[in-house]
Amino acid sequence: AERRVKAGGASVLEQSKAEIEYAASQVIQSEQKQLLVSSRRSLALILQVPEDTLPPVSGDLYQLNDLPDFADLKARLSENPDWAIWDVKMERSQAVVDAADAQRIPNLNAGAGWRRNEGLGDDAFVFFVGIPLPMFDRNQGARQAAVYEQSAAMEGRRSNEIMLERELSDVYGELSRAHTHAYAIKNSILPAADKSFEVSQQGYQQGRFGYLDLLDAQRTLFETQKQYIETLSQYHQASVNIERLIAETSATSNQPQRSINHD
After folding, report:
1. Which are the contacts of 80, defined by CB distance < 8 A and separation ≥ 6?
2. CA–CA distance, 263 with 259 (Å, rounded to integer)
3. Which of 29, 86, 129, 135 is buried deepest, with most CB atoms within 10 A?
4. CA distance 205 to 2
């Protein structure tokens, strides 16, 4: 804009507008830098390390892998701690039922020994067996309570399984949508926006387009790039959530991998 003003091809107003846009972008950049500093400080607190010793965090934001198979992920839900803990509860409740059943069986008492009968003047070998008759209390109350506890554990486990399966389904849907959207932006929308801005920039310098045309093309390109980054962020966040659900890292990484490199 400054070159066009000096060449007499544009008014000073266009240069002022361009300077305003540039100043606004500097403000946004400064805000993002402050957000980065704040995020690193929070990460240092989580890791319980001094901020100046925090190791660099790296990653490829623009890499997308093949979508994992949903059935495979669902089968691996049993690795989730919230899923596994119910198996322990089921084993414990079964042990309580078994113990209650064991207490229902009366204990058998037996013994043997010699006995002297002074009246008859002889000795005898005596053997006896005793068994209580549970006519009134057969430990029914304790066993019924154990059965109820076991039923509650079974219902709790099933309810937890349904909750985890539903959460996995929701997160997998987010992963699929972000994956598809990111590819569409990268392969179709972003190249078109980039081409439009390039043509507008050349046309503006040559005086064939006005400043507003250039500004509109530039904003479209920037918004597309921003949307692309946000979509990639959603994809990676969904990937992390799936890894959390199945308690396994690299859950969404399949071979061969397809990567997206941002030029």
Report:
1. 164, 245, 246, 247
2. 13
3. 86
4. 10
* Per-residue model confidence as pLDDT tens digits over 92-121: 777 776 776 666 666 566 666 677 666 666
Cα–Cα distance, 17 to 220 (Å, whole number): 17
Spatial separation of the C-alpha atoms in residues 83 and 245, rounded to whole Å: 10
Tens-digit pLDDT profile for residues 178-232? 999 999 999 999 999 999 999 999 998 888 888 889 889 999 999 999 999 999 9
Q: Residue 61 and residue 237: Cα distance in Å, rounded?
A: 11
> What pLDDT is attached to residue 237?
95
CB atoms within 10 A of CB 231: 21
Q: Give strand pairing partners of 259.
A: 63
Is the bond leading into 50 cis (omega within 30 degrees of zero)? no
